[in-house]
Write a structure and sequence with these properties.
Number of strands: 13
Strand content: 35-45%
Distance between the termini: 46 Å
Structural class: mainly beta
Order of helices and strands: HHEEEEEEEEEEEEEH
Number of helices: 3
């Protein structure tokens, strides 16, 4: 109940002025859920549970991008067994191949997403079946976190547990970043141009 109440409160973003309907129609088709084996603390029984988010980058090859910290000994995408074909723990990005999980591929934005641009972050918060939408703006296109020594995009909305690995998209439905981590007021994501440099071979030509 506490988690549900918190999720509802965090979902009370201001209604965006931008008409997001066309963009959301496109982006949501690419977003899938990641399931990993979790042990019930009361019964000790293992079961597949949604723990993170992924999105399709190549429909024909059934390739999905997610955050590397979402990986486990075994994982599924939309209930289909998924194999790790690339993982960069330093950048915190991974590519999964999930035969049988066919989703429309997201299109990456060309160029740097500027500060002030309206965006939407999408992910399976708290493992809910329906994806959560978090609207905000890019507060900083690139900022270096000293402890992590990585450049992140800062978004003015909270990223919730379970949204990791999901897409951050613009009003055209194009990918501008990968959800990494956040708190109750802001979120950090890896910008698309950084992702493309590390994963170019896995995107359609």
């Amino acid at each position: 109940m506490t988690r549900l109440l918190l999720a509802l409160l965090l979902s009370l973003d201001l209604i965006p002025i931008t008409n997001w309907t066309p963009a959301l129609d496109r982006v949501l088709q690419s977003v899938g859920s990641i399931q990993t084996l979790q042990t019930d603390m009361h019964t000790g029984v293992e079961a597949w549970q949604t723990t993170c988010t992924a999105f399709s980058i190549d429909k024909n090859r059934q390739l999905f991008m997610t955050a590397a910290h979402c990986l486990a000994d075994a994982q599924r995408v939309d209930g289909q067994i998924a194999w790790v074909v690339m993982s960069d723990t330093g950048l915190d990005v991974a590519i999964l191949q999930a035969p049988g999980a066919r989703r429309a591929a997201i299109v990456p934005r060309v160029g740097v997403a500027p500060a002030g641009m309206a965006v939407v972050a999408i992910g399976h918060a708290y493992g809910y079946e329906t994806a959560t939408l978090r609207f905000g703006q890019i507060s900083n296109s690139y900022t270096v976190i000293p402890d992590l020594k990585l450049s992140f995009m800062v978004v003015s909305t909270a990223f919730i547990e379970g949204m990791s690995g999901g897409p951050i998209a613009d009003a055209e439905g194009k990918l501008v970043g990968l959800i990494q981590r956040g708190n109750l007021t802001s979120g950090l994501g890896t910008p698309t141009d950084v992702l493309l440099k590390a994963t170019r071979a896995f995107w359609p030509e």
